[in-house]
Amino acid sequence: MTQKQRIVVGLSGGVDSAVSAWLLKQAGHEVVGIFMKNWEDDDDSEFCSSRQDFLDAAAVADVIGIEIEHVNFAAEYKDRVFAEFLREYQAGRTPNPDVLCNAEIKFKAFLDHAMRLGAERIATGHYARARLNATTGLHELLKGVDPSKDQSYFLHRLSQAQLAKTLFPVGEIHKIEVRRIAEEIGLPNATKKDSTGICFIGERPFREFLNRYIAHQPGAIVDEQGRKIGKHVGLSFYTLGQRQGLGIGGVKEKGAPRGSGEHQPWFVASKDLKRNTLQVVQGHDHPALLSPTLEAGQASWIAGHAPASGAYAAKTRYRQSDSACTLVAADEAARFALSFSESQWAVTPGQSAVLYDGEVCLGGGIIEHAAPLAVVGKP
């Protein structure tokens, strides 16, 4: 892109968006920064960093020499992202609010606002790439060149119209280079730690946060024979594959068969909402934690239509390598199924299954069901 444009950059206060803005300014574009405030319920809390993040973003804008605007999207975020987040948890699923935030806020509310400001493009600090395929005429979403930082998984719901208006400047370089640039040009946040976790929860304990919004419904924790071995505080507070916080470490039932697996750690294998029981198994590689297939709904395909059935790769959670799979039963009703070459660990309803063809992210959907190799906890 050689033509000089007016580009609005989402400045989060972090180093990635800061360097993105600087790179665009260096390329000669007219750059404007926007800081998005998406959460304000406890803005004075030690766990909410939005005030400091804005100060960091403003300091960055000053160094780079661009204007910055503070925009409040808290109402939209609460309606479009947080409300859905709570509904999913109350239904026993584990949603990914970052995926929804990108689709509803950063590339919808923010994009609309930027267009009203006369922007021709928007830019963010995501580690991903966008390109126009000259053969098909379609915009494609690609993985970032730094495999350890690639964020295409969180962006899989973007549309052709959104990608056509979006730039990802740091998607073309590695994180170590981003840090080097930031230090070289004297950005005040050059060594700022990357944010982790869900934006509105911050660094606070997850269960403590969820306690405010979801009622407790304690029930039994059962093993694979259906025997009660503990008590859970409410199914919404647990996710599949969870090991910590079960309160049953070292538990050994009377009459339990002796063997090498006797003292292996416990993992959440499934939830039975009707009986309000949490099923757990021992051992990381227990068959109840492994699924060769999954079904997903609410599919969103970047090309605007489902890809052809066949061999691809997929991720069922962000921090995992691509897994070889076969796409089957993709249809226009926003549903699809995947069959994996190797069973996937702790495939979790509510999370996203994202499909790849090499480095190209094709889209994905919300996992609704995964058939484990073993079913546990039935009386």
TrEMBL record:
Region (Interaction with target base in tRNA), start-end ranges: 96-98
Enzyme Commission no: 2.8.1.13
All residue ranges annotated as the tRNA-specific 2-thiouridylase MnmA-like C-terminal domain in the record: 293-367
Annotated site, Interaction with tRNA, chain positions: H126, Q351
Active site: residue positions: C101 (nucleophile), C199 (cysteine persulfide intermediate)
PANTHER family attached to this UniProt entry: MITOCHONDRIAL TRNA-SPECIFIC 2-THIOURIDYLASE 1, TRNA 5-METHYLAMINOMETHYL-2-THIOURIDYLATE -METHYLTRANSFERASE
Descriptive protein name: tRNA-specific 2-thiouridylase MnmA
Origin species: Lampropedia puyangensis
Phylogenetic placement of the source organism: Bacteria, Pseudomonadati, Pseudomonadota, Betaproteobacteria, Burkholderiales
Originating gene: mnmA
